[in-house]
Amino acid sequence: MSTTLEAMREVAQRAKAASRVMAAATTEQKNRALQRIAAELRARTVVIVAANALDLADAKASGKNEAFLDRLMLDPSRVEAMAKAVEFIAGLEDPIGEVTESWRRPNGLEVRKVRLPLGVVLMIYESRPNVTSDAAALCLKSGNVALLRGGSEAFRSNRAIADALMHGLSSAGLPTDAAVLVPDTSRESMLALLTLDGLIDLCIPRGGEGLIRFVAENARVPVVKHYQGVCHVFVHAAADLEMAERIVVNAKASRPGVCNAMECLLVDEAIAATALPRLAQALVAKQVELRGCEKTVAALRSAGVPVTPAAEADFGKEFLELIAAVKVVPGLEGALAHIARYGSEHTEAIVTGSRDAARRFTREVCASAVVVNASTRFNDGGELGLGAEVGISTSRLHAFGPMGVRELTAQKFVVEGDGQVRG
Amino acid sequence: MSTTLEAMREVAQRAKAASRVMAAATTEQKNRALQRIAAELRARTVVIVAANALDLADAKASGKNEAFLDRLMLDPSRVEAMAKAVEFIAGLEDPIGEVTESWRRPNGLEVRKVRLPLGVVLMIYESRPNVTSDAAALCLKSGNVALLRGGSEAFRSNRAIADALMHGLSSAGLPTDAAVLVPDTSRESMLALLTLDGLIDLCIPRGGEGLIRFVAENARVPVVKHYQGVCHVFVHAAADLEMAERIVVNAKASRPGVCNAMECLLVDEAIAATALPRLAQALVAKQVELRGCEKTVAALRSAGVPVTPAAEADFGKEFLELIAAVKVVPGLEGALAHIARYGSEHTEAIVTGSRDAARRFTREVCASAVVVNASTRFNDGGELGLGAEVGISTSRLHAFGPMGVRELTAQKFVVEGDGQVRG
User: Fold this and answer.
1) Are B111 and A384 in contact (CB under 8 A)?
2) For labelling, which of A156, A279, B78, B288 has a CA lying 20 to 30 Å from the CA of B259?
3) Are A10 and A153 within one domain?
4) pLDDT tens-digit readout, A185-225
5) Which CATH number do you get for residue A91?
6) Is B221 in the same domain as B267?
């Protein structure tokens, strides 16, 4: 352990030193680096795809499934998409130096809150190599240093991408230690990094629940968690059923593998007899398998819609595929109780024409995004207008919901006076 | 361990259940509870002071020093001050439900960010019993539940204060589990509480560095740290010396035992010959012991001002008494380098008439408060206009600087549409 710890400490110390330079970098410098990184990614497409082919061959040989291979795979069009994402981030507003509030005290002191970078951000992620350039670009734009600890299965791909980062930074006169791929992908090195309180200012784990729990349990550095999304859509008695159908289908079936997809449909018992068969039929038409509560099963069977009885474990479950749990609830009260018990504080939606129901739902539901009459799929940095995101926080501390460049900053107080002293 | 863990889990589970009720409590209900708590504190003055006398007697018997006894001691006027503080907090604006930003997306979705409570806040603190009512009141006002884990030396005092909290809450129809004194003050129970991720949303340790490090190293729950303040005042070449003298004396000597007091004076070498003797003399007149760098010692001895040579350990040290380190630095650049190396990111001040120097200092110094031409002592929730504070965060995550009721909240996204789905 101690050699690994020393090696990781040295990486983090260099990152910390670079973070002082990055905090003072101008917007122009940072944008020049981002433009150069995009150019370097394009220029290196062949090299990156070749490195990725080696990672892919190993993954295939070790029997990884199709979904895994698809997350890992890079082709020229995906490299182009990575370059475009970096350019997009270059175009975002620089959050550093932004004055978010200011006021004057009775004694004449002028107080303002000013955004500054967090410092060194450790990204821990699994197989998607595009996270390497996305996360580095978001950190760079916000004046932070990115320590990138990708999965071993993507190491050659990540290294080829990190070369582009390094060249982009140095050609803009910024330290190459500002975006560093951790050279050691062992679990031991991850554990070592997680102990470096004082050198690493924030850790953002991205990946499966197992990885995130491991990080949360072992970290001595601050962690913002991005856990699973067990998202509900509640179709209230006063819902427009045509709208409800559109929203439910979009929330479940437009991209079932992502965290803002609907996992459970709640239907108000007051309209269950008509709404349930219609909504269920629409989901089934999109190849969704339904797992219903007792009332749901009774109603759907008599309407001839295929459904299987839900097990208790189907509620509160993140399926991430074309499966949905369905439950009939006794009105708004029942929906609030179900969500409080089974929700994951990620995204919760209501479909209703009632102003009172919407108000109560938005006030009482605790989730990073509470949605009225729209799809859960909008809980996303791009869709909500934050630009790109490093992830969606489901912990309330520091950031709750999509984390863009502003969420990668802190705020300091700047106090200006003309000689004031405290009485 | 397992019985303690189970007992602490049960306390935290009740707190979590109460946090749902508190999140929905109205401003009026919360204020009524706070007014009742203030009244209960006043009505129980004799009981509280009597309980405190027992704590004090034990502390004396175990040989605690005067400063410790003073922190622990309650008399009727201190109880009155506690009641007044609770009333003051009742008068603050309720942060819950505040819309901090709102915008409309091109597709017509309306997005707003709305403040909600963090949930369950665990306060870990040492001997000052007033923290029990102060922290509970700040948590209550911000819709949070306070788990109060005070020191064993103040347990009887804290219990008497907690009785007032309980009665105040119940007479306003709020759950008594919303402000709970942890009944077990063992280290084992503290460790158990620190593992309850998912039940405790934030831990705020207040006290000596040892306690804070212990919490940071052992916590599985999020911690906002309130470390020491190693605060500098840099007197720049372009400073008004009369102003500098006033600020330096106030920063060091007005209350040397607090975290926003100056610990180290930095003097620009360009004006050292005149400024140093004048500032040093003013400090010495206030009984401050000076520990100087080589140049300081040479200059002060020839001016006949008493000074001892500083050891390396005197720089970066939090004296918390009438001692100050003094260093001559080569201009702004030298001050920035010294602060980056020895500062604690708490409070840093410059005295200067130069706009350029002030701009660079405020931009480049990383500290929760960066002060120009005023005393470091203004880094305080009340002085900066935040109302009361639970402490001053020196970590950049979630909050940096004084934490008032707004810093005890998170923000969720509320998204309203009229049937939008994602393409």
Assistant:
1) yes
2) B78
3) yes
4) 999 999 999 999 889 999 999 988 889 989 988 999 999 98
5) 3.40.605.10
6) no
